[in-house]
Structure formats: C-alpha cells, structure tokens
C-alpha cells in the first residue's frame, strides 16, 4: 500500500505523484447538487441528466451486481449504502436478493426525506438513515458490506480518508465505485469539448466539475493508507475497474 505523506489534505486529486498538468486539472468548485446557492432548476436539470445517463449505461445495475457478488456466501446479508442519493442502488439490491437488508443513507436531509417517502418506503428490508460517511453512527462490523457509489469525488482528501477508515470499521468489506480519472492529455481534450457547453447545459457543468474532482488510483491508495494510519489498522485495498468507472474494494485485515 502507498504510504501516506504527512499532510493528506494537500494531496492533489491525481495523487502525490501526479504530473504538473494533472495537478492543474482539479477544482475547488462544486457540482450544482452540492451548492446551497444553486438555482433549483439548474440543480434539477443536472440531476435529471445524470439519472438519464445512469439509466442508459446501466450504471447502478453494474454496482448492484458487484455488491451481490460480494455477499454471495452470506445467507442474510446486511448492506450499508452511503451517499445513496435517490436510492436506486438499494432498490435494485432489494429486488435482486430475497433476504438482503439494506440501510440506505445520505448526508443530505432532503435526500433522506425523499428516500423515506419514496419507493423504498414500503420495503420492510430497508431502513433509511441520515449518515455522514466520514463519521458513521454505527457499530464495528455491523454490516457485511458498505457501498459508496459516485460519492468519493464529493469528499476532500481528508474526508475521503475518514470515509475509508469509518466504512472499513463498520463493514467487513467496503465497495467504492466512482468516476475514473482520465490520463491528463485525454482529460484536457475532454474538458476542451465540455467546457464551452458547461455554462448552458447543467449536466455538462457537473460532468466537468466531477471529472476535475475525481481521484486517481494512486490517490485512492494513499487515501486508504491514510485511513489505515488514522485507525491504527491494516487495510487491504484493490483498485480496479467496473466498466468505465473505478472500483475500490477495501477491508481491514482482521486477526482470525
Ligand atoms: C453523485 S451523488 C450519488 C448518489 C448515488 N450514490 C448514486 O449512485 O446515484 C453523491 C451523493 O453523495 C452524498 N454525499 C456527499 N457527501 C457525503 C457524506 N459525507 N456522507 C454521506 N453522503 C454524502 C450526496 O448527498 C449525494 O447524494
């Protein structure tokens, strides 16, 4: 595992070994749904664009399959979904597994209220909670799997390291799926196409921001190493791909 440098808060999104160009390709700006001052219409359009893309690309189905594979050996698996947004992933998990129970959570009170009122309302195997992924109100090993889909890039490096420390504490296995950070030249070309349209198409504004905030595999390994250091444990991590996205599997090394 990559050893964390002293101050993780200063880590570039491309990692400490990022090139100069990669270090320039990041931003402190936020996507519309994360901005309290955002016009509600822009916010809604950005979210709808993302939902349409996810439906077209079967994004949540891929993540759900990954979680189901991880719990295949467990008779009555318990899953914690962090940053669940509209709860589509949890809805699929419940539909595809007859005994799985899920705690569906988000840090956003509005999202939690919508989850409470929405399609999961009648699901007796779902529990909705307001939870901050970086400071989890849950017991050690309470869940078989914790999953965080497309939320990692929303967190600062310090927050992301805290999330890995907390998620690996409360769950035996942690699955994080997020946007993969393109190699810098490709990233630059992509931004050149997207940037002119970002002011007029809210979804593309958020595509641009989220791409600039995405973490490289090297950065993710350093985040996990910082999480291990913070929690005084060993954390095993694999960083791979899930379709076009990055897939991280992490678990604390446990004494048998
Ligand atoms: C891009 S959305 C992804 C939603 C959902 N996971 C999906 O795949 O459609 C990111 C979500 O992460 C949530 N989030 C951001 N920071 C968080 C934190 N510290 N703890 C929990 N959730 C967080 C946001 O409120 C938002 O719902």
UniProtKB/TrEMBL annotation:
Q: Under the GO molecular function aspect, what terms does this record hold?
A: methyltransferase activity
Any idea what this protein is called?
Methyltransferase type 11
Would the keyword Transmembrane helix turn up in this protein's UniProt record? no
Q: Which organism is it from?
A: Mycolicibacterium fallax (Mycobacterium fallax)
Q: Does the keyword Methyltransferase apply?
A: yes
Gene Ontology BP term (one): methylation
Q: Which residues cross the membrane?
A: none
Q: Which UniProt keywords apply?
A: Methyltransferase, Transferase
Pfam families, per the entry: Methyltransf_25 (PF13649)
């Amino acid at each position: 595992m990559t050893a964390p440098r002293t101050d993780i808060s200063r880590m570039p999104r491309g990692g400490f070994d990022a090139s100069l160009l990669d270090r320039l390709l990041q931003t402190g700006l936020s996507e519309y749904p994360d901005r309290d001052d955002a016009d509600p219409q822009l916010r809604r359009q950005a979210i709808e664009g993302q939902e349409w893309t996810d439906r077209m690309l079967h994004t949540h189905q891929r993540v759900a399959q990954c979680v189901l594979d991880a719990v295949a050996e467990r008779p009555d698996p318990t899953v914690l979904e962090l940053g669940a947004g509209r709860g589509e992933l949890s809805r699929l998990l419940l539909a595809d597994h007859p005994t799985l129970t899920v705690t569906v959570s988000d840090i956003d009170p509005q999202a939690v209220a919508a989850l409470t009122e929405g399609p999961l309302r009648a699901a007796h195997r779902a529990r909705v909670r307001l939870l901050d992924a970086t400071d989890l109100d849950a017991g050690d090993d309470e869940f078989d799997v914790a999953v965080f889909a497309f939320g990692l890039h929303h967190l600062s490096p310090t927050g992301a390291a805290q999330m890995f420390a907390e998620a690996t504490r409360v769950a035996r296995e942690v699955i994080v799926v997020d946007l993969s950070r393109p190699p810098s030249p490709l990233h630059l070309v992509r931004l050149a196409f997207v940037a002119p349209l970002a002011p007029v198409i809210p979804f593309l504004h958020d595509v641009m921001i989220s791409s600039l905030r995405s973490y490289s595999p090297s950065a993710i390994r350093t985040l996990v190493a910082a999480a291990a250091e913070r929690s005084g444990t060993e954390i095993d991590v694999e960083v791979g791909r899930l379709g076009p996205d990055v897939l991280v599997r992490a678990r604390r090394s446990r004494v048998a």
